Amino acid sequence: MKRILILGASGFIGNSLYKELCSYFDTHGTYYTENDFFEKNHQFHHFDMETENISILLESLKPDFIVSCLRGGFDAQINTHFEIINYLLNYRKKLIFLSSANVFDAFTNYPSYEYDKTLSQSVYGRFKIKIENALLRLPNKQYNILRLPMVFGKGSPRVKQIRTILDLNEPLEVFPNVVVNATEIGKVTQQIHYIINRNRQGVFHLGSDDLVHQRDLVEDLTRELGYENPLFKNVYDSNFDRFLAVLPKDNKLPKNLQISIQEVVKASAKL
Q1: H or E segment at 79?
Q2: Is there a contact between 268 and 156 (Cβ–Cβ < 8 Å)?
Q3: What's the CA gap between 129 and 185, in Å, rounded?
Q4: What angle do CA 257, 260, 262 make, to 5 degrees?
């Protein structure tokens, strides 16, 4: 049975992925914040990337696949990923790196595809690019780069935040000029499961195959969540439509693993 290590398995994406994979693989995860549940579960390992070296855990577990859902300080994340790359080269194993649409946030005139040049104006985007570029120097079979747009879905922090703001009768900031795609957590975990199972190579864009203005997406979502007359505050950061979307083109997944904006909205309103 293949052994998988999910870095950041206590977070929203990492924990959802752990639940998706744990019945099929010998699945391990790391957590940072002290938690009784994780401490009692022998598949979970405490890891503080600010003070610990990931290579100790890698040498002890020897995972076949590492999935990086890490969050936290950028410098510590970069050091951790360079340690992982050494492990991959020594043991011929594979890293699946969760990246972001923000690696393209300097290109605003059109959506981005898997093998477009990356360029970012944000610190977050540039940090993701640094790790991506290091992975792109590895043999193809040793990495996947999975770029995600905004992730919604059942229990997602984004949906919780929308509910909290609207329950307080506060206005919700929306961006009428920003064109996005999106996804939901259930589909993301199925897609990653498939990529591991089929040992697919390369860069994947795990977003919906259609686009929407960000305000329209949030309006649809609030309606689906049952809010009658929510307050919106329009934020305009340009006079023209600005794209922040990662569309699949070269590495498409099977039809049952693709998703539309409408499906994202429906999945996000499930209790």
Answers
A1: helix 74-91
A2: yes
A3: 23
A4: 135
Encoded tokens for 173:
């900031």
**Cα–Cα dist 80/13, whole Å:** 19
> Nearest CA to 156 among 55, 13, 253?
13
In the chain the domains, ranked by start, together with CATH numbers, are: 3-150+184-205 (3.40.50.720), 151-181+208-244+251-268 (3.90.25)
- Calpha distance 268→221 (Å, rounded): 7
Contact 8, 28 (CB under 8 A): no
Query: How far apart (Å, rounded) are the C-alpha atoms in residues 192 and 66?
Result: 12
CB 68 within 8 A of CB 84: yes
Query: What span, in angstroms and rounded, lies between the C-alpha atoms of 259 and 24?
Result: 23
Question: Please, what is the angle between helix 261-268 and helix 214-224, to 10°?
Answer: 40
For the purposes of burial, counting CB atoms within 10 Å of the CB of 196, is it exposed (0-12), middle (13-18) or buried (19 or more)? buried
Q: Using an 8 Å Cβ cutoff, are 211 and 246 in contact?
A: no
At 23-39, the pLDDT tens digits run 999 999 999 988 887 77
185-197 helix and 12-21 helix, angle to the nearest 10 degrees: 50
CA separation for the pair 145, 251 (Å, rounded): 11
pLDDT tens digit sequence for 167-220: 999 999 999 999 999 999 999 999 999 999 999 999 999 999 999 999 999 999
Structure tokens at 110: 């059109």
The answer to whether the pTM exceeds 0.90 is yes
